[in-house]
């Protein structure tokens, strides 16, 4: 029994611990190694202009609310000038603010306000592709074949007798071919250009030194304005394999269906590491420990850790953890293998449960049985998740995550227990993946719905006029921040309490040792310093030992009592 092992931590019990990860030394306690970084999706955070789309002044206005969570940094999803075909990930000008979100002065005011609360700003850089409205791509379209302008992107002649077929079989992540054909200035069919995402998002040619120089200019522009670093979008895709060969697996490079994603010619090419080494050197010219975090869909973990070697990225997202099943064995495996892989290169592991591209974990953990579209949102025609179950599991999973050593990423609204909008009428959907696939994929709109701030106002206080770019579920009034702030048992106050204890006990810089003799199929239990963390993922209660209760995912848990299924607890052991 768990309590038998833990309640007598004397000389006979200590050797039974299974140590996995040592605490960081004082020398290695840079802020980013144990950071809590909160993702803001600007268009859905807070709207002060009244147009129904969130803006930078809205973020600035709520900085005190964010500071209540005791976070280290804000990661802002793209706010650059953009036609918004992919919610800002189609950038038309990397050194300006889209008028939807405000001005550069608004950005500077946000940085200043955040700094006053001890919060850094992380900018979402999108280097793999830009908008087809970017001046560089417009110049490429107007230029002849084999010109320097065209060499900024990936243009190729088509296959077949008349060049009518795409140059290879690669597919867009948003559906359909990853190639679009251009027209020459005289109206005749021209070359094709590569876009791993939407046709309005042409990929840059990172083999061209001019592209590298352009992005170094962009990095310096934002670093000079005081940003704390960059989250690098699709960092694994910048370099494509020479010759752009056909791919025998899924042509979009995904590693599902048994295909070896690590062999995909559009992802994870060795030459990409030289780019990030040069960026690391550039950031080190600035004071204040500016950081790089890779969004790199790379497996296995031993290969992903190459991205955070000492002269490359500071952090990379741990998608293996994000995608774990509700099963104790799966959690123990991914935690153990992550710490082992990242410890080998002296880097921190990051942990994340939700973001703007996946189903929120309060919904994901409430889905029982097979999901037809596990990477996509749910619609009104789908079986609906069990929200009470999902929220209970989400709170427990969050408590486990916040006790792990390393960095943590939080997605706006998860601290309110927000689910996806799973009954959103299809007429409102804006994700390009929905439209490019004719509705076969529902897309990510369900996790991007504007936040509820005040229960009794239109759009729940999101907008000064009551407008919202996506509809909010009617029952979100009970999840509004003003309601939850006053409820001691709310998800918001659970996050606030857990984050405060995480800071007090330095859990992000701590150690991890597994407790033995537990049901590995049902229970995850580990010690971080003198804090015991227990998550019950099984179907039966678990006995708890004596100790000081620090945080529990649900009320009514007591040391020496029992822990119900789908609950988690932190206990301080003497």
Layout of helices and strands, plus pairs?
Blueprint: H1 2-6, E1 18-21, E2 36-40, H2 56-61, H3 63-67, E3 73-76, E4 80-81, E5 93-97, H4 104-116, E6 120-125, H5 135-142, E7 155-156, E8 179-183, E9 189-194, H6 209-223, E10 229-232, H7 272-283, E11 291-294, H8 301-304, E12 315-316, H9 319-322, H10 328-343, E13 350-352, H11 361-364, H12 387-402, E14 407-411, H13 432-436, H14 481-485, H15 491-504, E15 512-514, E16 523-528, E17 531-536, E18 542-543, E19 548-552, E20 562-563, E21 568-572
Helix pairs in contact: 6-7, 12-15
Sum up the structure in keywords:
6-stranded antiparallel beta sheet; alpha/beta; 15% strand; 15 helices; 574 residues; globular; single chain
- The DSSP helix count reads 15
Q: Any idea what the radius of gyration is?
A: 24 Å
Helix content: 10-25%
Strand residues, percent:
5-15%
Give unreliable regions as ranges: 4-15
Head-to-tail CA distance between termini: 20 Å
**Biggest β-sheet: strands ordered side by side in the sheet:** 12-11-10-6-3-2-14-13
Largest sheet: 8 strands, parallel
Shape: globular
In short:
This protein is α/β, with parallel strands linked by helices.
Provide structural commentary:
Belongs to the glycosyl hydrolase 13 family. This is Glycoside hydrolase family 13 protein. The chain is globular and about 80 Å long. With 574 residues, it is an alpha/beta fold. Helix 6 (209-223) runs parallel beside helix 7 and helix 12 (387-402) runs parallel beside helix 15 (491-504). The chain contains 15 helices and 21 strands. Residues 4-15 have low confidence and may be disordered. The strands form five sheets. The chain has an eight-stranded parallel β-sheet with strand order 12-11-10-6-3-2-14-13. The protein has a six-stranded antiparallel β-sheet with strand order 1-15-16-17-21-19, with helices on one face. It has a three-stranded antiparallel β-sheet with strand order 7-9-8, with no helix packed on it. The protein starts with a helix and ends with a strand. It has helices at 2-6, 56-61, 63-67, 104-116, 135-142, 209-223, 272-283, 301-304, 319-322, 328-343, 361-364, 387-402, 432-436, 481-485, 491-504; strands at 18-21, 36-40, 73-76, 80-81, 93-97, 120-125, 155-156, 179-183, 189-194, 229-232, 291-294, 315-316, 350-352, 407-411, 512-514, 523-528, 531-536, 542-543, 548-552, 562-563, 568-572.
